[in-house]
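Researcher: Please predict.
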Amino acid sequence: MKKIGVFIITALFFWQVFACTVFWINRDGLSFGAANEDGAETRMLIISEPPNNGNNGYVLIEYTTEGVGVQLGVNEKGLFFDGLAAPAVAVEPDPERPQGSWQKLMVDILEQFESADDALAYKASFDTSFAGQEAGFMIFGDRLGRAGVVEPDGKIITNGEKDFFVAANFYLSDPDIEGSGGFDHYNTAEWWINDIEELNVQSVRDILRAVKQGITRISVVYDLDNAVLYIYSERNYDEVAVFDMKEWFKKGFQIVYADELEYVSHDELFADEMDEDVEDNDVINSDEPCEQNEETHCSGGNSGCTITLM
């Protein structure tokens, strides 16, 4: 079987190359979400909304490209979402599924829910298609051990008994639809996740680096247990901005560009967790086309290669 990616606002993703990768891991009592947002050159905007009137506080990240908008987000309870582009499919009218605004639904979900299962069911109860078509799907993951996607027709696919979930730019229910993509990123992420020796921010960051593309605009690691985002801008995984939701909420409602955050050395920040023995699983970045053999695991196709020594 092939694999999936990240969607956003239905038919508006015609400009984006199918390259995004999103995943969730719940292992050893720890929960992380992660995403590479790949697309046209643009600045990424971060919106921080503190809890109010009994609603959860949350953070949204959006493209500033006109007509795109919110792409991903997370709330203080440890529930995150991302949207993945995929081939446009027809959505049959269903009177049991009222029309809903995709972006409003995402805010409603972050404000109200803690569980990915509840979020998936809520999203599935609405039809967010445009003119009878939808070109993508949603992934949700939480700190409670649950994750999954909801496809345009309301079909829900979850992690089941697995402790991780990966999404790229294809429908899990039908990966062979013409125009699907992101299979190499999906497979590479899954391979890395299965190979993790110690789950932490650094190991999650390394997976994002392994599946990055030349058009990766922002990479985010969500520490779902502690409501902290680790943000990497424009494929620079050596510097990280730490976005502690609890601290930002003290400032009230905030809007800031991702490239205006304070970035620090990743290795210095996580010096105590650094593994000094990196003879295996080293990452080598190359501009050459990707060629996989039994000694390497690589992603990137003809646009450049990330090689993992095995």
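Model: Residues 1-17, 276-281, 284-310 have pLDDT under 50 and may be disordered.
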